[in-house]
Automatic annotation (TrEMBL):
InterPro entries: Ankyrin_rpt, Ankyrin_rpt-contain_sf. ANK repeats lie at residues 1-26, 62-88. It holds the Pfam family Ank_2. The keyword Chaperone does not apply. PANTHER family: ANKYRIN REPEAT AND PROTEIN KINASE DOMAIN-CONTAINING PROTEIN, ANKYRIN REPEAT-CONTAINING PROTEIN-RELATED. Keywords: ANK repeat, Repeat. This is Ankyrin-2 (ANK-2) (Ankyrin-B) (Brain ankyrin). One of its GO terms (cellular component) is cytoplasm. Gene3D superfamilies: Ankyrin repeat-containing domain.
Length: 175
């Protein structure tokens, strides 16, 4: 509950008395406190949980990590805190070949600031540029297209039918 309401002081006390920061809730998705704090956009709570050794790449039953939630919700400060704590921005939901990772989620939700953060210093994010550009063009996301092109995405690369079907119809259900 402290993660959901952003009560860092309460979380500190619970952690002091050995609360399990990785314990999942009883909901269908089995989210841990870090997922919930991220979904709520609480960077202070995320930093508190990460400092208490929360598993930053822990997945829900739907395969989402906290960084997926940060990218989806446009929570730049939370995404930064997760990356600083060692979160892997390339982890995919479901089939890794489909590329539904934090970068893809930032594109699909038009979260420009998060996308720029995720592309900083790492061109591996450009692996699925054809799909990312296709999605951004389809959605009319001009600024996202500029960011992708500035990140060395090839505008002449063709997205395959499989890429498009996997990315656009893939499992994107959140909490």
């Amino acid at each position: 509950m402290a993660a959901e309401t952003g009560q860092v002081e309460t979380a500190d006390v619970l952690i002091k008395y050995k609360a399990d920061v990785n314990r999942e809730n009883n909901l269908e998705c089995r989210a841990a406190p870090l997922h919930i704090a991220t979904f709520m956009g609480s960077d202070c709570m995320v930093r508190t949980l990460a400092a208490a050794r929360a598993q930053v790449d822990k997945t829900t039953t739907r395969g989402h990590t906290a960084l997926h939630y940060a990218a989806w919700g446009g929570h730049v400060d939370v995404a930064r805190a997760l990356l600083e704590a060692g979160a892997d921005k390339h982890l995919s939901v479901g089939n890794p070949r489909r590329g539904i990772n934090a970068i893809f989620m930032a594109v699909i939700q038009d979260q420009e600031d998060v996308l720029q953060l995720l592309f900083q210093g790492d061109q591996r994010g450009a692996n699925f540029c054809n799909l990312l550009l296709h999605v951004a063009a389809r959605n009319g996301q001009v600024q996202t297209i500029k960011t992708l092109c500035e990140s060395r995405c090839d505008v002449n690369m063709t997205a395959t039918t499989e890429d498009i079907a996997g990315g656009l119809n893939g499992q994107l259900g959140m909490l």
